[in-house]
Amino acid sequence: MKITLIHGQNHKGSTYHIARLTAEKTGGDIEEFFLPKDFSGGCAGCHACLNKGREFCPRAEQVSPILNSMLASDVIIIGSPTYIMEMTGHIKCFLEHIFTLWLPHRPEEAMFSKTAVVISTAAGAGMKNVVKSLARQMFYLGIPKIYKLPFRVMAASWDGVNEKTKKKIDIKTDRTARKIIAKNKKASPGFKLKFLFNMMRKSQMNNDYALLDREYWEEKGWLGSKRPWK
Ligand SMILES: Cc1cc2nc3c(=O)[nH]c(=O)nc-3n(C[C@H](O)[C@H](O)[C@H](O)COP(=O)(O)O)c2cc1C
Q1: Is the CB–ligand 1 distance for residue 153 below 6 Å?
Q2: Ligand 1: which residue has its CA nearest to atom 9?
C-alpha cells in the first residue's frame, strides 16, 4: 500500500497526530507533505494550466511532487485543522493548483480506484464542514471511496486533548484503517460518480471554449465507449 499524507499545516498538533495515526495503522509506504513548507501560495489565476497544460503553471515545480505522489498512491490522507470554520488556507491553495484534474476538466484514470481519508479537528465547531469540503474536493478528482474523520478536540494542541477524546480517536482511526486494509485497492466508482462523469461527458461534447479539455476527452476515448475505470 502506498499512502500520500498531506498536512494542511506545518506544526504537529492534534490534526497531525490523527492523520499520522491513520496512515500508520493503514500501513505501507508513507510519503508525507507539510503545507506551507512543501507548497505555498494561492493560484495566480493565469489559467495556464487550463489553456496550455499543467506544466505551464508558475508553481508547477512545487505542485508536481505532491501531485505525482497522489497519483501513484493507493490512499490519500489529508488533514487540516479547522480555521474559521474552513480548511486551512494552505491546503486550499494547493487544491486550487490541481483543479484541472477535476471531472469537468481533465480527470486522471488513476484517481478512479483510490481511497481518500479526510481529517479535521476543531476546538468546538466547524470540523464537519471542513471534512465535507475536503471530501467534495476528493470526489471531484474522481476518487470513489472517501472516509470523513471530523473530531471536536476542545484543545489547542495534542497534549491538551483529554483521554476520552483520544480513546474515541483511537477507535475511529482503527475502524477506518481496518476498512481500508480489507478493501485494499478495490475501490470503484459508484452511481453518483458515474452519473457525474456522464454529465461531464455530455458537456465535453459541446465544449468549444476549453479546447485542451475537449481534446483530452477525445484522446482518452471517453466521448465514445471508453471509461476511466475498469
Ligand atoms: C486561525 C485559527 C482559526 C480557528 N478557527 C476555529 C474554528 O472556526 N472553530 C473551532 O472550533 N476552532 C477553531 N480553531 C481552533 C483549532 O481548530 C483547534 O484547536 C484544532 O484542533 C487545532 O488543530 P492542531 O492541533 O492540529 O493545530 C482555530 C484556530 C486557529 C489558529
Answers
A1: yes
A2: 125
Confidence band for 185, pLDDT divided at 50, 70 and 90: confident
What confidence tier does 184 reach under pLDDT thresholds 50, 70, 90? confident
* 186 — pLDDT class (breaks 50, 70, 90): confident
CA–centroid distance, residue 82 to ligand 1 (Å): 5
Peptide bond into 150 cis (omega under 30): no
C-alpha cell at 66: 505532491
**Crossing angle between the packed helical segments 191-205 and 211-220, to the nearest 10 degrees:** 120
128 Cα to the center of ligand 1, angstroms: 13
State pLDDT tens for residues 124-144: 999 999 999 999 999 999 999
189 lines ligand 1 (CB under 6 A): no
Q: What are the structural domain ranges in the chain?
A: 2-189
Q: What is the DSSP secondary-structure string of 89-128?
A: HHHHHHHHTTGGGSTTS---GGGGG-EEEEEEEESSS-HH
Backbone angles phi, psi at 2, to 5 degrees: -110, 135
Atom 19 of ligand 1, residue of closest alpha carbon? 156
- Superfamily of 2-189 according to CATH: Flavodoxin domain (3.40.50.360)
> Is 199 close to ligand 1, i.e. is its CB under 6 Å away?
no
